Structures are given as C-alpha cells and as structure tokens.
Amino acid sequence: PSKLVGARSSSVFTMAKSLCISGDGKVFTVGNGITRMLPGPNPTATLLGTQWTQGWQKTYCITEDADGILWTEGNGSLIAWDNEAGTEYRLPEPYASIRINDLIAYGRDSLAIATAGMGILIWSKAQVVGSINTTNGLCSDIVRRLHRFGDTLWCVTAKGVSGLKMQGNQVREHWQWTTAEGLPTDDIHDLL
Description:
Elements: E1 2-3, E2 13-14, E3 18-21, E4 27-31, E5 33-38, E6 44-48, E7 62-64, E8 70-74, E9 77-82, E10 85-90, E11 100-106, E12 110-115, E13 120-124, E14 127-132, E15 143-149, E16 152-157, E17 160-167, E18 170-177
Antiparallel strand pairs: 1-2, 3-4, 4-5, 5-6, 7-8, 8-9, 9-10, 11-12, 12-13, 13-14, 15-16, 16-17, 17-18
C-alpha cells in the first residue's frame, strides 16, 4: 500500500486499482474507495463518499460518461458521482452479487459493465437493459477489462480477446482471438 499524498493522517492508505482523468482534468483513483487528487505545489488527496467506503470497501473501476459524471461500482451497486456527491443505484439480483471488474461509458446514457462470470451487462436509465455473454460474442463470461473505439467494444477475457461491433444494445458483429488465432495465451489481463 502507498500513503496518500497530502493525507491528513499517516494511517490513511489506498491500493489504487484504476485511474481516471476526467474531462475537466481532475485525477481520480479507486481502490479503497474513490480518491480525488489535486496537483500543485501542495498536492492533496481527498477520499470521497465515505458512506460507501466504510470498512475500506474495495472499488475496482471508474469511468466518466458523456455528461461528465463519474461512475464506480460499490457493494452490489453502481455509484454516480456528480460534483463529487455520490448517488447509489442498487443492482437487482442476480447482478448484485457478482463482482464488477470494469465499467465503460457506452453511448449517451449507458454503461457497459464487465463482470467476473456473467459477461457484460448493459446499464441504461438506472436499470440493466441487456447482456452479452459467450452465446452472443464473448470468448468467456469472465471479462476483465473493456475498451471502446467508435461502435466497437474490445473485451479482455479469461479465454482471449473479443471485439464486439455494437448497434444500440445488440452485438451486430463479433470477432475472437485466442491461442487458436495466434495469441501466446488465452489468459489476457488488459489491452492498451
């Protein structure tokens, strides 16, 4: 663990799992909660939303949507951060009990949610509106990371890489790369 820069107490620690630079240039990390970092001659780091970080809840991912709202996952929920105040959206079962590995803004008002066992969930207007799994394009339902380029979602899974050309919430076309297509391993952890 590394000590937070400018933390008020030497007992404050974080394990950074992901980093987001917002559209207005602020830097946020997630790990043990969400931390806003401010650079300058006296850099500071501030833990946000302590109501969701009691007991140092692990937070694995963060993304910013087209409206500048930051999204993180919580304990069975998604949390929208608008002006550094959080609003919690509880996920329904069975989604509430699955680990969320990554989030990415998708379209104007949607998120693609990478899960550890249920593939990708599509979230829009405070509800799950679709899902993508091995039956419609993924190499594995264990999705570690998501990247977006235009209308294509790139998915890093436990059994290779999937490219999903999307139309709305539906997969229009998909590609898969595994060891059969020449990857040195199927166990991929990230794409740059």
